[in-house]
């Protein structure tokens, strides 16, 4: 399935960019005056192959999994919160539920590796979003002591993500927002980012859910020792994922690969999501052209992950949550870009005089 997805991945349609740029200059505004909204419109056209791109409804995919490395005391919250938050997603009470409703998104929560068995009838008990059971294993192993998972499990988790993206596209979603829930996943993300970029762990590691400053040095030391002990091959994204990764992060990378293979714009959330997007790009660099970055997270590693991808986020709101929240908040800007293209009058149609030039 991964091989089929990679075989289908194409470069975006650059030819369309010139035509959309010409159309933008015919709209009733001084050329370029809508700034980034104009480049956003061109990007959406190159991704979708449509001169009038359609991006609604968006699909939000929240992947949940646990992390063995939580046992090292690297998060401010206990591991059980992952499963408890899945219950909250299903009931509709988490931040991502609120923002997903605001943008009319289809929301799906996928258990790709929560440590406990989640109730199979939870979605039927009046919850608003479906819970998909696609568990690869009950959490990763503690990568401070052994590899987080086997390579075959990392591939399986990537395929969980591809399947979720395929379901969203089949249900009519035209833009994907990929989010996560997994206590200790900032530790896994910082570790993988350090290997992917070669930058110092201290620059890439932050307080996550809010560990005290005094525990930050411990978190960094856990990551540094694990990188040394696991010794992943920096050129091999699957090796990095299996030795230091998380099941939800692998699934997120898979969702980006799957969405790109279906020519759907991928609106990237915060730190965890950007590390997953970087992994997807290391698996196939063509994914990069499908990425639009929603916001800059307060987690200090995020700016480094963005730099590695050449990403320039739309918003900076001081968020440090994940779940897909920052991307969901940025979605109305994408919608504005498409409406500008489709609904604004041209100089000719409105009888407005154009520029007289210099
Ligand atoms: C109630 C709650 C809701 C959340 N929603 C997202 N996260 C975020 O925090 C976690 C990562 O931080 P760390 O690595 O420090 O554990 C992830 O689950 C992430 O999605 C949450 C965390 C908590 C506690
Ligand atoms: O930016 C994120 O994705 C993030 C930051 C802190 C905690 N969880 C997620």
Topology:
Elements lengths: L1 H7 L6 H12 L8 H14 L9 E8 L14 H12 L3 H8 L3 E8 L16 E4 L17 H20 L4 E7 L3 H13 L3 H4 L8 H18 L6 H8 L2 H15 L4 E3 L2 H13 L7 E3 L7 H9 L15 H19 L3 H4 L8
Parallel strand pairs: 1-2, 1-4, 2-3, 4-5, 5-6
Helix pairs in contact: 1-11, 2-3, 3-14, 6-10, 6-11, 7-9, 7-10, 7-12, 11-12, 12-13
Question: Short summary of the structure?
Answer:
The chain is an alpha/beta fold and 358 residues long. It is 49% helix and 9% strand. The longest helix has 20 residues, at 151-170.
Quickly list its features.
single chain; 358 residues; alpha/beta; 5,6-Dimethylbenzimidazole Phosphoribosyltransferase, Chain: A, domain 1; Rossmann fold; 6-stranded parallel sheet; 15 helices; binds alpha-ribazole-5'-phosphate; binds nicotinic acid; glycosyltransferase; nicotinate-nucleotide-dimethylbenzimidazole phosphoribosyltransferase activity; EC 2.4.2.21
Describe the structure.
49% of the residues lie in helices and 9% in strands. It is α/β, with parallel strands linked by helices and 358 residues long. It folds into 2 domains: 1-52 and 342-350, 5,6-Dimethylbenzimidazole Phosphoribosyltransferase, Chain: A, domain 1, CATH 1.10.1610; 58-333, 3-Layer(aba) Sandwich (Rossmann fold), CATH 3.40.50.10210. The longest helix is centred in the middle third of the chain and has 20 residues, at 151-170. The chain is elongated. Nicotinic acid (NIO) binds next to helix 12.
């Amino acid at each position: 399935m991964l091989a089929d997805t990679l075989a289908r991945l194409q470069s975006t349609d650059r030819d369309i960019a010139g035509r959309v740029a010409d159309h933008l200059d015919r709209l009733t505004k001084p050329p370029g005056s809508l700034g980034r909204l104009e480049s956003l419109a061109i990007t959406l056209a190159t991704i979708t192959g449509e001169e009038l791109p359609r991006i609604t409804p968006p699909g939000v995919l929240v992947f949940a999994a646990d992390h063995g490395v939580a046992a090292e005391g690297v998060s401010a919250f206990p591991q059980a919160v992952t499963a408890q938050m899945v219950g909250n997603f299903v009931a509709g009470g988490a931040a991502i539920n609120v923002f997903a409703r605001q943008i009319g998104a289809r929301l799906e929560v996928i258990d790709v590796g929560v440590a406990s068995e989640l109730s199979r009838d939870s979605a039927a008990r009046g919850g608003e979003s479906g819970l998909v059971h696609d568990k690869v294993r009950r959490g990763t192993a503690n990568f401070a002591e052994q590899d987080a998972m086997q390579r075959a499990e990392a591939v399986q988790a990537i395929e969980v993500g591809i399947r979720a993206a395929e379901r969203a596209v089949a249900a009519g979603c035209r833009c994907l927002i990929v989010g996560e829930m997994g206590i200790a996943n900032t530790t896994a993300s910082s570790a993988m980012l350090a290997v992917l970029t070669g930058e110092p762990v201290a620059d890439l590691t932050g307080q996550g859910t809010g560990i005290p400053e005094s525990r930050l040095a411990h978190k960094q030391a856990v990551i540094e020792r694990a990188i040394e002990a696991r010794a992943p091959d920096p050129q091999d994204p699957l090796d990095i994922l299996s030795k230091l990764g998380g099941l939800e992060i692998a699934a997120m990378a898979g969702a980006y690969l799957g969405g790109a293979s279906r020519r759907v714009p991928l609106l990237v959330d915060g730190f965890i999501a950007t590390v997953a997007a970087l992994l997807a790009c290391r698996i196939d660099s063509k994914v990069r052209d499908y990425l639009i970055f929603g916001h800059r997270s307060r987690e200090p590693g995020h700016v480094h992950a963005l730099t590695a991808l050449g990403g320039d986020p739309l918003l900076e709101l001081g968020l440090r949550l994940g779940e897909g929240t920052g991307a969901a908040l940025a979605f109305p800007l994408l919608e504005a870009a498409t409406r500008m293209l489709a609904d604004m009058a041209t100089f000719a149609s409105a009888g407005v005089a154009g520029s007289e030039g210099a």
